[in-house]
Structure formats: C-alpha cells, structure tokens
Amino acid sequence: MRFDAQACLALAPGRVYAPWIARSRVFAVLYLLVLLAACAGAGKTELSTGSVDSEARKRARVYLELAATYFADGMNGYALDAMQQSLAADNGLYEAHNLRGLIYMRLNEPTLAEDGFRKALAVQAQAASVQHNYGWFLCQQGRMGEAMVMFSAALANPTYEARAKTWMTQGLCQAKAGQAANAENSLLTAFRLEPANPVVSYNLASHLFKQADYARAQAFIAPINTSQWANAQTLWLGIKLARKSADGVQVTALSASLRSRFAQSPELSLLDKGVFDD
Q1: Has residue 241 been placed in a domain?
Q2: Tens digit of pLDDT for each residue in 212-241?
Q3: Sign of the CA dihedral 244, 210, 172, 8?
C-alpha cells in the first residue's frame, strides 16, 4: 500500500514514525494530498472530555472511535457508516463533524467535506485541529488566502500541540502557491520545532532541492538515509542530490540500498530507466 499523505497531514499529532516506513511513502511536497490515512492511528480524534456524559454522548463516542479506526485502516465506507451513527446519537461532538470532513475529503466530495469542517467549527470555534484540517482542505481547493487564515488561527492557539505539523503543511501550501521564500520559512520553523521528525526533514530537503539549494538539502536528507526512517522516497532524493554534487560513491551506495530494500518501488524503476528529473 502506498503512503496516503492526505491522512497524515490532517490528523492528530504525537504518532510514532513507524507507519512512515511501513507505507514506504513519505508524502511528496506537492502532489498529494498527503499528511491528511495511511498512517497507523491517523484516524484517531482528539476526543473532548466532559465531567459527566449522557448515555447518548457515550454511544456517540463509541461510534466515533470505531469510525476513526476504520478511517485509519482505509475502510472508508465503514468509517462513514460509524461516523453517521455517532452523529445520530449526538451531533454535539465537533470531532465527529471533523472526521466527517476528512472522510469526504478522502472520497473527493469537497462540498460535503467543507460542510463537515464548518459544522465542527460551529460546535467548537477554537478547535485548532479542525482549523488545521480545514486549512489543508482549502489549500487543496486552491483557496490559499482562506487556508492561511485557518493555519494562522490554529498556530495562534497557545494550547495547540501539533504546531510543527501545521507549520509544515502551511509551507507545503505556500510552495504550491509559488511562495518559495515563505514556504522555506514555514518548513524551517517546523524543523526547529521537531528536528527529529523525518517527514518534516524530507519535505524541507525536497523543497530546497527544487530551489537548487543542493548543499542544504543534502544536510537535511542525509541523516534520514542513515537512519531507520529511510524509505524509497528519501533514498531517491539522496541519489538525485548525490548526482548533483557528482558524488559517485554516494550514488552507488544509495542506489544499492534502494535496490535491495525497495525492489518494487517506483523510484527503483526510475533509477533503472535513468530518469532523474521526473
């Protein structure tokens, strides 16, 4: 299964990076809709807590957890059914509306996806995770100004913990809009917040590569390729960077690693065809 960048960008923070390897596809800078569901656990929601839940709300939470699990496993129809049962039990959980937006976003139903995000914010106007997801959705729709408003609102929330994810996503959207300098600043901010996050490092390196800043790109991709987080996409970027610096030793070493570890990858096919600027 290929990496579904769309899921990772959009969902709750704090996940381990193992799914990044298992799917062997770190999401590319401009696509994909990427990081908003292939990451294991990506469908988990930030369930709100109350002092005492009614029976209806308890049922809604159970269905929401079930929907989130289905979503994380790519079972969209089952996720949609469980999410609808959650809302039928109690439509006051903003997390359920948020998940509805994500499901329909994945199903390429933009009108229904936006309705989900708007309803989530109507229930909880300061939900930074929803603002992040809605911003990512707006970015995919080419509504960059509105997307930046959502990202800024999420980042302005002092209790928001997934700031690196939002800075990175903002940077990807800025790159998509041709705002290279702003994109670099956002990606660097994400890296400063989470220097050990391989997804952030990869996307920063990829952006710098596209700007022909090869030495700096190499500084960010090299540590990934010598770590457990290396995958076909990071190795491929490393190979292209090594070619730019005429480092034949590195080209040979990284190519051998790509061939032995990811024999079925599209990147190996490109390598064998000698297509390095695809």
Answers
A1: no
A2: 999 999 999 999 999 999 999 999 999 999
A3: negative
